[in-house]
Amino acid sequence: MAPRTRTQTSVMPKGTDTRFGTTWGAGSLIPWESATCSDHTGPGDGDPLTINKWSMSGGVINNDFFSWYGAYFVNYVADAMEESNFPHLDVASGGISNTAAATQAAARTSPSAAYVDVTANVLELADIAMLIKSTGETLLKKFASGNLKLQFGMLPLVRDLDKLIGFHEQVARRIRTIEKLRTTGSYRKTVDIGVYNGFASDLFIMQSADAFIRVPRTCYTVHGIRASCKWIPAVDLSYLNNESMYALAKAAVLNTEINFSSLWEAMPWSWLIDWCGNVGTYLKAQRNVVPATLAGVTVQRHTKTIWRVDGYSDPSSGNRTMTPAIVTKEQKLRQTSFVSLTAQWPFLSANQMGILASLSVR
Question: What's the mean pLDDT in 142-148?
């Protein structure tokens, strides 16, 4: 496969700025929108892809001719209207690298992914009993203990019991997945990893030569992450009949076997470690109840930013005005990745902060 890059750019007149009889910008053109695509030609799919687009409008300065010494603008595009002056914000994306996103996607799309982890629940029952029997504490400690019992004892069990209501539907879905692996030789699925956004505002100098124009501007950036996985059979699945396929799907959905993933979930402090890493997610991605191999994983990132610049008016300078401006930038990336252990320190949610507070009280 050969890489290729295509670019399309539109331009518009710069306009004129006249002072002391000297005119600037007359006849010149400036970029006003652009689109670039870099990809690969040839058979297959899932290769790296980069698409960048940006467009601008507004920011045009005009004023009446009021003196020989004052600048006289005619449809003049402000000097700051350049693509480099309006970047994407550095959005807080939870520290999710491509590898972390790929590992999370593999764990969620795996044909062996457990819907209800029976083994982990059984192993945790002893810990739940130890929590419930504690007595003679202060009121604050009782509250903290009650929160921990709720978060790590009752809620996981209630959630899994609720899931059992849709158990047969999940088994039917897993049968369709296994059937696709058996008949077509592959299974593909794309999952959303997260959407993150950022906002910023400032006073920005749009023009400094022959006029000083500083106006408020605001920016909003949205960054979305998705990941796609392709699974292929690790063995020949043609031996499967309806009965054996149902048994395999049921075993995958319920996860009644003892494996590294279940043992990890049952460890007392695994939940805290997984706040700062992806050990649990990685082990889930390695489950192999259904014999399937991850043949490829790609991470897609979509970033869109919109800058809005306020208009300007100054009657004392020959009715000088500048129209409001909008700059839109967009980037789409598709990159190949792999499954691996990663470490991160994300912002804690209110629920996680409550759990840590309860632990500190205890």
Answer: 44
- Phi and psi at residue 7, in whole multiples of 5°? -130, 135
pLDDT tens per residue across span 342-355: 544 444 444 444 44
Which pLDDT band holds residue 25 (cuts at 50, 70, 90)? Answer: confident
Instruction: Give bridge partners of residue 10 from the DSSP assignment.
Output: 33
Residue 256 pLDDT greater than 80, yes or no: no
> Rounded to whole angstroms, how far apart are CA atoms 181 and 172?
14
Contacts of 351 (CB under 8 A, 6+ apart): 151
Rounded CA gap, 83 and 328, in Å? Answer: 9
Edge to edge, the sheet with strand 72-74 lists 22-24, 16-19, 72-74
Tell me the β-bridge partners of 219.
200, 307
Which pair of structure tokens corresponds to residue 334?
A: 């598709």
Q: What is the CA radius of gyration of the chain?
A: 29
Q: How many C-beta atoms surround the C-beta of residue 141 within 10 A?
A: 14
- Is residue 1 within 8 Å of residue 44, measured between CB atoms? yes
State the alpha helices, DSSP H only, in 185-327: 242-254, 260-266, 270-275, 279-285
Decide: 287 and 266 in contact? Cβ < 8 Å: no
Q: Where do the H-state alpha helices sit in the chain?
A: 98-109, 118-132, 139-149, 155-165, 167-184, 242-254, 260-266, 270-275, 279-285, 350-361
- Residue 57 and residue 325 in contact, taking contact as beta carbons nearer than 8 Å: yes
Burial of residue 50 (number of CB atoms within 10 Å: 0-12, 13-18, 19+): middle
Residue 256 main-chain phi, psi, to 5 deg: -95, 0
Token match 């979509």: residue?
Answer: 302
Cα–Cα distances in angstroms (integers) from residue 227 to residues 23, 220, 231, in the given order: 53, 24, 13
